[in-house]
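Homework help thread (please don't just give me the answer)

Our assignment gives two proteins as sequence + C-alpha cell strings and asks us to describe the second one. The first is just a warm-up. Here they are:
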Amino acid sequence: MTASVASFPDVAVRTPRFAVGSYGFYIAISVAALIWSSPLFILFFTALKSANDFAQNGTFSLPQTLELSNFAKAWDIGIKTYFMNSLVLTLIKVPTGVFICSLAAFALTKMRLRGAQVIFTVFVLGLVVPMQMTLVPLTTLYQHLGLIDSLPGLFFLYLGFGLPLGILILRGYFRSIPDEMIEAAFIDGCSWWDVYWRIVMPVSKPAIVSLLILDGISTWNEFILAQIFIRTQANRTLPLGVVQFSTEFSTAYELLAAGQIITIAPLILLYLFFQRYFVHGMAGAIK
C-alpha cells in the first residue's frame, strides 16, 4: 500500500468546479437565484408603472415614474374586501386545521389505537384523489346544504382538503418523540390530554410552525375551490378577486401587479419571521 502511494507523489487533488465553497458554486447559485426571483422583480416594477408607461415601454423596462397610487387604486377597487375575506378565512381555518391534525396524529402515533395504520392510510388516500374528481359530488352536496356562495362553506372545504397533508407531516414528527418521555409523564400523573398539551405540543413547535406556514400559504392562495363555490363579488377571496383586473377585452396590468404584490406580501413576511422553525420542522417531519 505504501509503495502504491509513493509511486504517485505529484498527483494534486483537484477541487470540483462546482464544489460547495468554490467560485463556480457561488456563481451558479447567484445565477439561479436571479432567474428564480426575476418574475418577482418584474411584478414589482410593473406595479410601480403608470398605464401609459407600461404600454409604451413594455414589461422589462424600469418605471419612468413611481406610481405608488396603483396600490391605493387596487385596494379601493375591491382588494380591501377580498383581502379581509381571505384574512378571516385563513386566521380561522389554519389554527383549527392544525389543531385537528395534531390531535389525529397524536392518537395515531402515541395512543396505540387498534387499526391505526389503516386509519392513517385512509387519511393519506386524500392526497392521492385529485380534487377535480370531488367537485361534482361536493357541488351537489353543498346545494342541498345551502352552503354555495358562503365563506363558512369554503371553510369546511379547505379544512377537509388540508387534513391529509397535515396529519402526514405531524405524524412523522411525533414518531421522533421518544416513548420514554410519554411514559415518564404518565408516572408523574399526567393524563392523555396533559401528555398531548404539555409534552408533545411544546416539543413539536418546529413542526407545528412549519405546518402553520404551509397551510397558511395553501389557504391564502387557493383558487379552484373559491372559483367553483363562490358566486358573488362580496364573498370573493383574494386570488379570485385579483382576476377582475383582467377582462375579455383589456387588462389593467399595473393594477393587476399591485394586487398581486398585496397578495404575496403577507406570505413573504410570514416566511421571513418563521423560516428557522420552518426548516427545522420540515427536516423532522420527513425523518
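The one we have to describe:
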Amino acid sequence: MTGRLVQLLRLSLADLRGEWPVALAQVIAIAAVLTPLLVLFGLHQGAIGTLIARLDRDPAMRLITPEATGANRFDAAWFREMAGNPDVAFVIPSTRLIAGQIDLLPAAPSPGASRVEVRTSLIPTAPGDPVTGSAAASMGTPSGAGAGAGAVVLSARAAGRLGVAAGDGVTAFVERVRGGRTEPLAVPLTVAAVLAAQNDGGTTAYGSLALVEAVQDFRDGKAVPALGVTTGEPAHAAADYPLFRLYARSIRSVQPVAAALEARGITVATRRAEIASALSLDDSLRAVLLIISSLSVAGYIVAVTAGQWGNLRRKRRDLAILNLAGYGTGWMVAFPVAQAVVLAAAGSVAAVAGFAGAAAAINTLFQASIAHGEAACRLDAASLLAAAAVTTVLSTLPAAAVGLAFRRIDVNEELRHV
C-alpha cells in the first residue's frame, strides 16, 4: 500500500514538473485567492481581538454595581451564590459610601511637603480583586489591641497627592459625633502598594473588608476594639450589606449577569452600551468576512474545477496508457487528487508567506497605536493550519469529481489516435 502511494506521488510530481509553468500558475492562483482572505481574517483577529482584549483587561468595563442604595440587602448566602456563578470573576460587599470617607496624611511627610489632608474613599478589597490584583493579598487586618495593624492599597492619584509610595506609612483620620461631642480617631496604616493610573483614576484607598467595617462601626457610634476604641455600643458582625462590587468574567458575561440580577429585582449599573457597541462591530465584521469568504470559495471551486477538467482532458491519452499498463480505474481518481493536494499545499505555503509579509507591513503602520504584545493583523498557527486544510479539501473535492468522470475513458478509442 505504501509503495503504491509513493509511486502515485512520484508520478504526480513528475507530471507537475514536466508542466511546471502550468503548475506554477495554479499555485499562484491558489495563493492569490487565499492571501487576501488571510489578511482580512488577520485584521479581524488582530484589530478587533485587540479591542476586545483591552476591554476585557479593563475592570471598569466588567464592573456591575447596584444603582439604588438600600433597595436590597445582600447576605452571606447571596455572596456565596454569586461567587459560584461561572460568569462572575469577583464579588465583595460594600459598605455605605458616606461611611467610607476618610482623610489621609503621610506619617512621615517629605521635607518641604505640605501636610494637607487628602479626602479619600475607603473601599473594601480582597485577593482576586481585578482592580488591586495581587496587592490585596499583602494587606493585613486591623486585628489586635493596637490600631496600627492594617494596610491599604492607594490609587496613583491618592499616592501622588500624599507623596507616598509602597511601604510608607499613612494616617487615616475619621470623626464621629456621639452624645453631642465630636470624637476624632487616627488610624495608622501602611501603604501595601500603589495602583497603576489606568486601574483607578480616582482618589481611592482599598482596604480589607474588616478595616472598612471597623471604620463604619466607629462612625455609627459603636465600640471598635480593633481600632483602639472602647466607648460606644458593642459592634456586631454585619448580617447583610446594602451594596456590592461585582466583576463579570469577561465583557461578554456582563449582560447575562446583569440580566439575571435584574430578573431578581436588583437594578444594576453597567457599561452595557459601550460593550454592545464593541461586540456589535465584531459581529458585523464577522458577517462581512463570511460573505467575502463565501464568494471567494465559490469562485475558487469553479476555477479549480475548470482548470482540473481542462488539465485532465489534455492527459486523456496518458491516463489511457496508464490504464493499459495495469493501473486500475482507481488511479484515474487518485492521480488528480494527489496533484490537487500537492498544488494546494504549495499554494497554502505561498499564501502564508504572503500573509506574513502583509501582516508585518500592517503592524509597522499601526505600531504607534498598539501596545507591546498586541498586533493590528495576526493569525495564530491553528488558524493558518485550518486555512490550509480547508484549501486542500476544496481542491481535492473537484479533483475527485473530475477523476470519477474520467473513469469512463474508452482506452481503445484513446489509443487509436496515438
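TA reply:
I won't write it for you, but here's a hint about the kind of observation we're looking for: The radius of gyration is 35 Å.
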